[in-house]
């Protein structure tokens, strides 16, 4: 429990600057609307959790309501998260599980209903996403985006 608390505080402190620069981490839906204008990890995670709990983000993306626009690119927050957690994200994708995958799914606005599919897809397509050892986070996001565009369910989250 203490390790998780320390990790959360570290993540909050390290990520608040990046989130302040770009307020797009929680995607769209009721959660994003409730926490609109707030920056930092906590409001973004709360917004993503609200969206997952209410299950409204998928509807918003398909209907273009609740501030959702599926044609927008994957958020800068997801790139920043991958950049600062590359090894954890790679390990999470390689195993198809882990907190880093849950966090990445939230930052990308993936609903709780589609989160497991996201984890399975990234696990199955690991070699397509992480194409080399010293890959840059922008390349990982581009590869992830391309893989998601090929999936009938996850394509709506791809930029």
Write a brief caption for the model.
The chain has 159 residues and is an all-alpha fold.
Describe the structure in your own words:
This protein has helices at residues 2-21, 30-34, 41-54, 57-63, 76-84, 86-95, 99-107, 112-124, 126-129, 137-149. It is mainly α and 159 residues long. It has one domain (2-157). The model is unreliable at 3-26 (pLDDT under 50). The protein is built from ten helices and no strands. The longest helix is centred in the N-terminal third of the chain and has 20 residues, at 2-21. The protein is globular and about 40 Å long. Helix 5 crosses helix 10 (137-149), helix 6 (86-95) packs across helix 7 (99-107) and helix 6 packs across helix 8.
**End-to-end gap:** 36 Å
- The portion of residues forming beta strands comes to under 5%
Order of helices and strands: HHHHHHHHHH
The dominant shape is globular
List keywords for this structure.
159 residues, mainly alpha, 10 helices, 0% strand, globular
List the helices and strands and how they pair.
Layout: H1 2-21, H2 30-34, H3 41-54, H4 57-63, H5 76-84, H6 86-95, H7 99-107, H8 112-124, H9 126-129, H10 137-149
Helix pairs in contact: 5-10, 6-7, 6-8, 7-8
């Amino acid at each position: 429990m203490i390790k998780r608390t320390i990790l959360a505080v570290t993540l909050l402190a390290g990520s608040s600057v990046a989130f302040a620069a770009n307020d797009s981490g929680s995607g769209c839906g009721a959660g994003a609307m409730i926490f609109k204008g707030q920056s930092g990890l906590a409001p973004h995670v709360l917004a993503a959790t609200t969206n997952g709990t209410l299950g409204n983000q998928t509807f918003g993306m398909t209907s273009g309501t609740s501030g959702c626009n599926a044609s927008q690119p994957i958020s800068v927050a997801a790139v920043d998260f991958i950049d600062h957690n590359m090894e954890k994200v790679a390990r999470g994708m390689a195993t198809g599980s882990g907190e880093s995958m849950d966090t990445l799914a939230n930052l990308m606005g993936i609903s709780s209903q589609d989160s497991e599919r996201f984890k399975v897809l990234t696990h199955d397509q690991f070699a397509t996403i992480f194409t080399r050892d010293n890959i840059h986070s922008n390349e990982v996001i581009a590869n992830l985006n391309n893989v998601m565009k090929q999936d009938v369910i996850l394509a709506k989250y791809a930029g």
